[in-house]
Specification:
Blueprint: H1 15-22, H2 25-28, H3 36-48, E1 53-57, H4 60-70, E2 76-79, H5 85-93, E3 97-100, E4 123-127, H6 138-148, E5 151-155, E6 163-164, E7 167-168, E8 175-179, E9 192-196, H7 199-208, E10 213-215, E11 218-219, H8 230-241, H9 243-261, E12 267-269, E13 276-277, E14 283-287, H10 295-304, H11 333-341, E15 342-345, H12 353-365
Parallel strand pairs: 2-3, 2-4, 4-5, 5-8
Antiparallel strand pairs: 1-9, 6-7, 6-13, 8-9, 10-11, 12-14, 14-15
Helix pairs in contact: 1-8, 3-8, 4-5, 4-7, 9-12
The structure holds ligand T4K.
The site of ligand T4K has 23 residues, from helix 4 and helix 5.
Length: 372
């Protein structure tokens, strides 16, 4: 058994395949600023993600920030605290105020029953997160958004390649933002994309990701730099060729964990929604008090054996130091409870099933049990 298992490990294409893909960069010297590989990956992803429109970005975070800015939103954005800090930062850094909605205790996504009570005259958008690839209650969110004339931007950073009711997750809402970070199911080293509904949003995103430049002597908007370079795009092109095997292998790992941990007293695992085709990006396990060992004790027991589980997402965004005294965590009790009880266990395509068995053995031993 290896002594160091991390929560995730990037998949890399065969080295020759990548070298072959980047060779022509030494011939044409065009290595960034929307080159050929950028264009190719963008069109491949448009089709893979089943979206009408897509704009590649340098990462998931800038996809979120620039989408909020391209929509010219103002005031308040209703969002979830149960996410990676990027979601909240994107709202705040765009001059908007996050209003935190609690989560559903089973899906960990925004509790749609609580959204309407948070809407004020200042609300301009809803920004839910398909956390761990758990798809939000799309129908209810769309209903509320159209009733109050709000934009919907999904943080889809965990849901690359997933479908809901047969359609790509990125085709829902006004826009969906994806991350292609090295730790994701699909990556371009660093990278991201915005899938969006209204074509005019794309034009603004194109400007905003390239300083607002309209031509050599014309700058129309106060943009940023969020372009994906050609080496990243080449990595994306290679990884996309292997994506089906990547997801299939992850599914196998996920099912292996479930074969050991499903039904164990005090452990709560994700219940799959039959409408969703999952990507198995994360393997979250919740350790409730009936388990007999706390989440932190499980974390420590694994760490002692060289296994790095992660407390994604602890602490929750509305309790982070940088936001202290600005928000009240007691207003989102389900998110707070979950963040104190959850562990994401290692999952990546090359993780050996023997490692999964070993991890489960360590966990079950805490309850005095052994693998069957
Ligand atoms: N919205 C949501 C909901 C997100 O989860 C994220 C990112 C974003 C927005 C923003 O998207 P990006 O701007 O990042 O594209 C990691 C990732 O850096 C981050 O992308 C991800 N979410 C977040 C959930 O996880 P850290 O701080 O936990 O990363 P780090 O460096 O601790 O790495 C995690 C594990 O991966 C480690 O065990 C080591 C392993 N690893 C990592 C890297 C970078 C490798 O084996 N190789 C590597 O190259 O944030």
């Amino acid at each position: 058994m290896s002594t160091n298992v991390l929560v995730t490990r990037p998949s890399l294409p065969p080295m020759d395949e990548y070298i072959n893909e980047i060779k022509d960069l030494w011939e044409n010297y065009w290595i960034t600023n929307m080159g050929e590989k950028h264009q190719l990956l963008q069109s491949q992803l448009k089709s893979y993600l089943q979206t009408d429109h897509i704009e590649l970005m340098v990462n998931g975070h800038m996809s979120l920030e620039l989408t909020l800015q391209a929509m010219k939103l103002q005031g308040e954005v209703i969002t979830t605290p149960y996410t990676f800090v990027s979601t909240t930062h994107a709202i705040v850094r765009s001059g908007l105020t996050p209003i935190f909605c609690d989560i559903d205790p089973d899906t960990y996504t925004m509790d749609v029953e609580k959204i309407e009570s948070l809407i004020t005259d200042d609300t301009s958008a809803i920004l839910p997160v398909h956390v761990y690839g758990n798809v939000c209650n799309i129908e209810e969110i769309e209903k509320i958004a159209s009733k109050y004339d709000l934009k919907v931007i999904y943080d889809a950073c965990h849901s690359f390649g997933e479908t809901y009711k047969g359609k790509g997750v990125g085709s829902y809402g006004n826009a969906s933002c994806f991350s292609f970070h090295a730790t994701k199911v699909f990556h371009s080293i660093e990278g991201g994309a915005v899938c969006y509904r209204e074509p005019e949003l794309g034009k603004r995103l194109e400007y905003l990701k390239n300083f607002g430049i309209d031509g050599p002597e014309s700058v129309l908007y106060i943009g940023a730099n969020a372009k994906m370079n050609e080496f990243s795009a080449a990595m994306g092109i290679c990884n996309l060729r292997h994506i089906e095997q990547e997801i299939e292998k992850r599914k196998h790992i996920d099912h292996r964990y479930k074969s050991h941990l499903e039904g164990v007293k005090g452990i709560k695992l994700r219940q799959e929604d039959p409408n969703v085709l999952y990507n198995y990006a994360y393997f979250p396990a919740v350790f409730e008090s009936e388990f007999g060992a706390t989440r932190n004790e499980v974390f420590d027991a694994l760490a002692q054996e060289g296994i790095e589980a992660r407390k994604y997402f602890y602490p929750i965004a509305n309790s982070l130091e940088c936001y202290r005294r600005r928000f009240d965590v007691s207003e989102t009790p389900n998110a707070l409870h979950l963040s104190n009880h959850i562990l994401t266990l290692p999952i990546y395509s090359d993780l050996a099933v023997e490692e999964v068995d070993h991890i489960c053995e360590i966990i079950l031993k805490l309850q005095g049990k052994r693998l069957l």
